[in-house]
Amino acid sequence: MRATGILAGVLALGCSTTLAAQTAPGDGALDRLATRMVDEAIAYDPSTAYFVGVPPRDNRGWADYSAAGFADYRARNDALLADLKRLDPATLSQRKRFTYAGMIERLEAERAMRVCRLELWDVNHMSGWHLVLSDIARDQPLETAAQRADALARWSALPAVVDTQIANARAGLAAGYSAPRAVVARVVKQIDGIANAKPEDTPFWQLVDRSKDTAFKASMRAIIVDRLQPAFARYHGFLRDEYAPRAREALAVSANPDGRACYAASLRFYTTLARPPEQVFQLGQQTVSGNLATVRELGGKKFGSDALPDILAGINQAADNKFTSEQDQIAFSSAVVDRARQKSAPAFAAMPVQRMEVKPFEPYLRGSGASSYYERQIDPKKLAYYRIASEKWQEDTRGGAEITAVHEGYPGHHMQVATATEAAAPVDNLLINSAYSEGWARYSEALSEELGIYQTDYALMTRRLWPARGMVIDPGLHVMGWTREQAIAFIRESGRWQGSDADDLIDRVAIIPGQLTAYDSGGLEIRALRQQAEAALGACFGLPEFHARVLETGIVPLSALRAHIEQWVAAKSCPAGAGGERGR
């Protein structure tokens, strides 16, 4: 992939490795637009302040999910985009050009995504509106009497948000939009885990636990029992009795109105690339084929057979590749995280200050099909978490757990996110894209092999069995006519997802079109940039410096990352005789 269009022009204006020290005449204007972008996001959803690193201004309000609320926010973003495009990027410092590129990409991609009408079918077990409530409860300020009063007001008002979501879903059904029925069943399970759980097992109970004020604790408990759980019981009944029977059977987003256009917009949103689905599908197939050739070679040495079924059986049936209990998996994964932090250090110029720990899912998420994930914490003094789906320990393997742990922790998500957070401006926390963030984590899975982090032979094979299959399954399911059974067979061929895990993954792909392609779209690009730099610089190439150049950009569109690395390679001084094209 080459940098093209506006991002190529933006990033082709100069390169430096001391980004923080640079200033330029247009920086102030961009800073004002960036502040405006953050302000608009917080005005729409006050809880956004908790996640972008600015002091909260409104601890009572909720996002306005009404049609009027969406329309107003979108109009404000359109005006912001127009003003942003009037700014000449030639007047910006290099650091600000990254911000400019990210803002342009995000605003344009979000505008393109409007064709999906996601607000009309936000019944989503992976990233639905209800899943952020736990994070808001975790971060809601409670230190002062005024803050506790705000909390009581905010959470007392949540039932109105629930009713708005019910109204939106009804409107979606009337217009022909819905989530797949299989996904709806998963959300019903999650909502049941809120509506009918003990109050102590709801995501809202954190508010009670975190306060020492007896009166507040009693009032908050009453809100949970008397207002919140009845509201979610109402939502649960709506989903089960009214929505599910009318939800679409088809998994493909193309079954919704303008579904093919929605898929194209989703691919762009998650990958930051303008690749058509057919090209993504073909690249995925080619990559999977190359990976399988290596797996067969490794399997022949390990199991005496290069037949894929024999290799998969050897991996999945080996007693030393299994866990004995859920706690065994958690302890094993924690040990991988600790080892990975130590062994990653030589490959990086600096390690992040913030630490990460392994922690199981909260009760309401267990068994709902949600995947393990990285839980970011904006305050570097607080712990981040690798939230592990440990309730499925019997279906996981030690080799697979090693890969997931490095993907979520070091040198994967936590390494990148915590490094970026230490230098991030609030707007940077709005500009996350999956291609860079998940691409870095996918690249890190291979890097971990180089660094000697994996301790099982199984991980060396397992990590090659899955990558790039998402680039095949995702467009295959959404626009190329693949059936659920066809996609599951292709998933299970990887050996990574067995039993109910394969069904979980299919429903994840169904409800987040395009996102699964981002991992390898980004991972392949970072790997290609490294190979390009190694070839050009020869003995002058240094892995810690390359990683520093990749990470210093923060999360940017892939074309911006490519332009930055290519400029660094072109500008790097390499003494004659040191090797590489620049040394000859």
From TrEMBL:
Q: Name one Pfam family in it.
A: DUF885
Keyword annotations for this protein, in alphabetical order, are:
Signal
Signal peptide bounds: 1-20
Q: Entry's InterPro entries?
A: DUF885
Q: Show the stretches that span the lipid bilayer.
A: none
Identify the PANTHER family for this entry: DUF885 DOMAIN-CONTAINING PROTEIN, GLR0591 PROTEIN
Q: What is this protein called?
A: DUF885 domain-containing protein
Recorded source organism is: Sphingomonas sabuli
Q: What is the lineage of its organism?
A: Bacteria, Pseudomonadati, Pseudomonadota, Alphaproteobacteria, Sphingomonadales
